[in-house]
Amino acid sequence: MTKDIKKHKIETPKERQNRHKAMEAIKVLNTIKEDFTQHPKAMNYFYDLYEKVHCKHESLHDDKAKVGTMCIQVPSEVIYALDAVPVRLCNGFYTDDEIGSDLLPAKSCPLVKATVGQFASQNFTDKPDVIISPTTCDQKAKSGAIIEDMGYSVYDMEFPRTKESAESREYWRRSVRKFTKELSLDLNKKLTKKKLKEAIKKVGYAQYLYHQLNSLRKNSKSPILGKDMFLVTNAFFFDKIDNWMEAVKLLLKECEQRVKDEVNAAHKRSPRIVYTGSPPIFPNLKIPLLIEQSDAIIVADETCSSNRMFNDMVSVDEWFVNDMVDSVADRYLKGCTCPIFTKNNDRIRRIIDLVKDYKAEGVVYQAFAGCQVYEMEQRSVLMAMEKEKIPILYLESDYSPSHLGQLTTRIEAFVESLKNRRRKQK
Ligand code: SF4
Ligand code: SF4
Known about the structure:
By secondary structure, the chain is of the alpha/beta class. Helix content is about 55%, strand content about 10%. Strands 2-1-3-4 form a four-stranded parallel beta sheet, sandwiched between helices. It has a four-stranded parallel beta sheet with strand order 6-5-7-8, with helices on both faces. The structure holds iron/sulfur cluster (SF4) (2 copies). One iron/sulfur cluster (SF4) binds near residues 112, 137, 140 and 338.
């Protein structure tokens, strides 16, 4: 009798959602591992990490206060210095996107819907103790208020919409100072000179390791595919920073050897792509996977779930707490190329530089359906690429597993056009 009851135990909604998320994660991990050969052995750390967190729901940060961050603009150096861990809440699960769809307008950004959906269903592996919501894009700002209404503790961190002026710099510095003070009170931890200096150095070293690894993709035979690089950088959202750095060091060593051995992760004729636009976040790696399944290789990216997280180091003149906090603030404003700014020439400059430095032959620009700023900014990016004679493909997508056929056709046609272009140039 007891056995029968156990066998027919009814799944709770939370268990069902977790099962669906685990299935989503496994499907993508299997594609990443099995549809491609030649991945570096050191990638196994990252494959196992995603399985542990997203399929087995094993917590990584039981012993620490967790500060949930709604956007990359929240300075992780300050969080580490206060003995807490940053956990980025930007979410790539379609299961959560569907839950969020019941709470937000149908035309909202899937990333925002998925983030709100996760709060509604409370299916966290590492539940945040406090949530920091920078007022970057409108949808993020409004969703912070919705999450607060659900009973979570949300702190709004004011962010300027222009970047070049002295006023916006000062405004943002004040905002970071206030955030530092409030978080210190909330966590009941004092920010010391020693701890902040250590945290700046640690995050700086993580940035350095990333750039070392990333620069290997400049080789004509890239040792690593873009889909793997997205996994590495996305893991920075939630992994223990020391573990992440150790794993990247091993990967770097292996990739350096692969460069010496002339191992090519792609085919000889695979066109080289720079990826930009709305951020690919695991398991929504739909577009990067379609690109690499279509015989192209992503050699660089300009997105906030990857390369942009490691932009610009903190540059400190005086190692006093207040100076360090201001220097941290500067790093985050200077490095931001999100289209929420009125003008965003830095982003265009960076894409062009990436194309040149990584010898890319084309750009793929993805905008999430419902993300007005990325949709609007495509016009200026397309014009700039046209001027530089850089082929670009603009795609609109969401988290839904449908419409794959249409996207595949467009990506394959673009990859073919790049191959033809190369033939003609010879
Ligand atoms: S797209 Fe912009 S607003 Fe959204 S998480 Fe990235 S940096 Fe933040
Ligand atoms: S993709 Fe667009 S709407 Fe979504 S978080 Fe980024 S800027 Fe905001």
